[in-house]
Amino acid sequence: MLRPKRLGIALFKTVMVAIIAIWSLLPIAMIFISSFKFDREIFAVPFRLGFTPTFSNYVALWEQWGGFFSGLVNSLIITVFATVLAVLASAIAGYAYSRNRHPVLSSSAFFLIFIRLIPPIVITLPLFPVVNQLRLNDTHLVLIILYAAFFVSLGTLVMRTFIDQIPIEIDEAAHIDGASRLQVLRRLILPLSGQGMVAVAVFVIVFSWNEYLFALIFTTANARTAPIVISEMIGAIEGVQWGVLFAATSIQLLPVLLFVILAQKQLVAGLTAGSTKG
Amino acid sequence: MASVTISDMRKSFGKHEVIHGVDIKIADGSFVALVGPSGCGKSTLLRMIAGLEEISAGELRIGERVVNELPSKDRDIAMVFQSYALYPHLTVAENMGFSLSLKKASKAETEERVGYAARTLGLEALLDRKPKQLSGGQRQRVAMGRAIVRDPQVFLFDEPLSNLDAKLRVQMRGEIKALHRRLATTTIYVTHDQVEAMTMADEIVVLRDGRVEQAGQPMDLYDAPANIFVAGFIGSPAMNFFAATIESVDTLRLEDGTAIPFSGGEGLAKDQRVSVGIRPEHLMLAPGGAPSKITLVEPTGPETLLTLEVGHAAVTMVSRERRRFTEGEIITIAPEPDRLHLFDPETGMRLPQRQ
């Protein structure tokens, strides 16, 4: 039997958790549910849970906004390659930071944190003529490079912390066994820091999948990503079709949500690396 | 197999020199222990031999080859780490065969050599396990197996038994020694435990502060330590030291006035001041000896460890007499006359004695 005071604390905690959960999940739930409603029902007051679900919004999305699906494909290509690039670069850099001590490395580690503090818009505008000059405008490559570059700094720090936990004797034993640095990285460090790589991947995937600013500036037609198409839906001349918009948003949301749920365990381990002794 | 020759080898970290010109010759096929207190440079020295630390100055030869500039993998050595340093994501078989897989050895060769190592160490049943499913002693064996598979010229051991419990340590001590006898590979073994060094090695090198204090066979170090440091380091419990003067060829007088008979004092000047070292096991009960008060009795079974108060000095004695000692009791003791060690109190060096 809980004493009244403890009971009070437990109750308080439960209520707080409930409030936070509702606060963050309710809008998402409303969008998801609304995507199965007819337009006239969406904004009916009071909000009704009981209704006849319809797929008409999804059908309309397919018929009227084909660009959204090619946007999804673009998003997918850019996200996958940006993630692979960022994770690999972070792992290699993290290994270098973890295993070498040098004043230049220490100060560049500070630089890694520092550049994270600069607002993205500050680098976006000067990049525009550069990208134009390189004829990279409206290509997948420009966004892949930008998104990956954006996360290499944070990713490197995460990977460094993670690789720091792998005892250096393992490297040394492997060197004596005849391994080169590259072999140590490929055969020991990478397999042993999988959780760190998942953590970095989650950051890059969530960011790349949802990013708007760079995509808006650097793409026009060929490499347009899904978020850009969604924003176009809001600005459509014949008025916003909310149901269709919500259908698109729900589809956009789903892959990242699934991925984060699947990677949850690895993610927690990766983010808390170094906080406790293994 | 090969000999290892270390000539005037030095190591500096920045301006700070930690190994000050070490010379060691290790014969082909021998088992040499590097011992010393922590911070004496023994592990650094081993890591220099392994190629894990750069050699700042001097020369290192394995066989006839100067290997100063060679990377670890080209030195043809194998090393067993204190932490074992097994690859956690690989099975026992993969751990042992890692070096072969790097060389892209054939499957048949890998199986044969890993199999041989596993049979040698009794690991056949564990080949498919991961390191975390093994006990400390088993991990230790896998680390040794990884070294055996490479069939190197030299085995290096860095405090390999420190993480094991006392009983297992004694068992593994025997196994490593037996393994060396079977493979006859030149072995360099670092330990802070002088008992390990005494029991396992053909030759012991005692290090202190980056210098060799003495190198020699275990019993030579025990019987004729070159200086006070080695005398105090080798042997357990540690040697007792007293300040004394030479009274005659066969008599010493301690500071508190006790006269001690000894032999082998020819060549020492009368009234010369000396430090006398007496091992606890060379003190015996003697009627007419120095009266001593027992302050602590520690029976171990075969022998009894006594802490005594002689004058104002605390003295350790090991007695094999089957008799009851009680704390506070007064006994009379004397050293075996031909088992005294005399040192120069200024330099700490051993004084010449006729044995």
Automatic annotation (TrEMBL), chain A:
Pfam family membership, one: BPD_transp_1
Family annotation (InterPro entries): BP-dep_ABC_trans_perm, MetI-like, MetI-like_sf
Coiled-coil residue spans: none
A cellular component term, taken from the record's GO annotations: plasma membrane
GO terms of biological process kind: transmembrane transport
Bilayer-crossing regions: 7-33, 72-97, 109-128, 140-163, 184-206, 242-263
Name of the protein in its database record: Maltose/maltodextrin transport system permease protein MalG
Similarity-based family: Belongs to the binding-protein-dependent transport system permease family. MalFG subfamily.
Membrane-protein topology: Multi-pass membrane protein
Function: Part of the ABC transporter complex MalEFGK involved in maltose/maltodextrin import. Probably responsible for the translocation of the substrate across the membrane.
Keywords from the named record: Cell membrane, Membrane, Sugar transport, Transmembrane, Transmembrane helix, Transport
Keyword Transmembrane helix attributed: yes
Domain ABC transmembrane type-1: residue ranges: 72-263
From TrEMBL, chain B:
UniProt key word Transport: yes
Keyword Nucleotide-binding recorded: yes
Gene Ontology MF, one: ABC-type transporter activity
Domain of life per record: Bacteria
Cellular compartment(s): Cell inner membrane
Gene Ontology biological process terms, A to Z: carbohydrate transport
Pfam families: ABC_tran, OB_MalK
Family according to the record: Belongs to the ABC transporter superfamily.
Protein name: sn-glycerol-3-phosphate ABC transporter ATP-binding protein UgpC
Gene: ugpC
